[in-house]
């Protein structure tokens, strides 16, 4: 399994921006689809964005136009930039890696994002 470590969370004012980063402990190359998910208090974990090894990207409808996911297969990192943050974006954000052949899932420990004035 891939070990994933997220960073970049914190307290942000509404309308602000944030960049979350996820570092993998081994090569993610093109065999892992990487993603960001989030879980708000009392709610299920949901997908925010995913990026395949070939660069194909899927965004949740609620995040389209407000976030950008990117990956660096040399540095083994995946970033998520979120703009125009809203209080409802408050959640723990998790990085995810899915092996394209075995479908094995790996999760990071999560990073808290709080949007509040």
Question: How would you describe this structure to a colleague?
Answer:
It is a single chain. By secondary structure, the protein is mainly beta. The chain is 0% helix and 51% strand. The strands form two sheets. Strands 2, 4, 5, 6, 9, 10 and 11 form a seven-stranded mixed beta sheet that branches. It is globular, with a radius of gyration of 13 Å. The termini are far apart. The mean pLDDT is 95.
List the helices and strands and how they pair.
Elements: E1 4-7, E2 10-12, E3 18-24, E4 32-39, E5 46-51, E6 57-59, E7 67-72, E8 77-82, E9 91-99, E10 105-107, E11 111-115
Parallel strand pairs: 2-11
Antiparallel strand pairs: 1-3, 3-8, 4-5, 4-9, 5-6, 7-8, 9-10, 9-11
Q: Could you name the key traits of this structure?
A:
117 residues; 51% strand; four-stranded antiparallel beta sheet; mainly beta; single chain; 0% helix; seven-stranded mixed beta sheet
Distance, first to last CA: 39 Å
Main beta sheet: 7 strands, mixed
Stretches where pLDDT is under 50 for at least 5 consecutive residues are none
Structural class: mainly beta
The number of helical runs is 0
Look at the structure and give the mean pLDDT. 95
Count of β-strands? 11
Helix coverage percent of residues? Answer: under 10%
Order of helices and strands: EEEEEEEEEEE
Q: What does the overall shape look like?
A: globular
Radius of gyration: 13 Å
Strand content: over 45%
Describe the structure concisely for a colleague.
This protein has no helices and eleven strands. It is an all-beta fold. The strands form two sheets. Strands 2, 4, 5, 6, 9, 10 and 11 form a seven-stranded mixed sheet that branches.
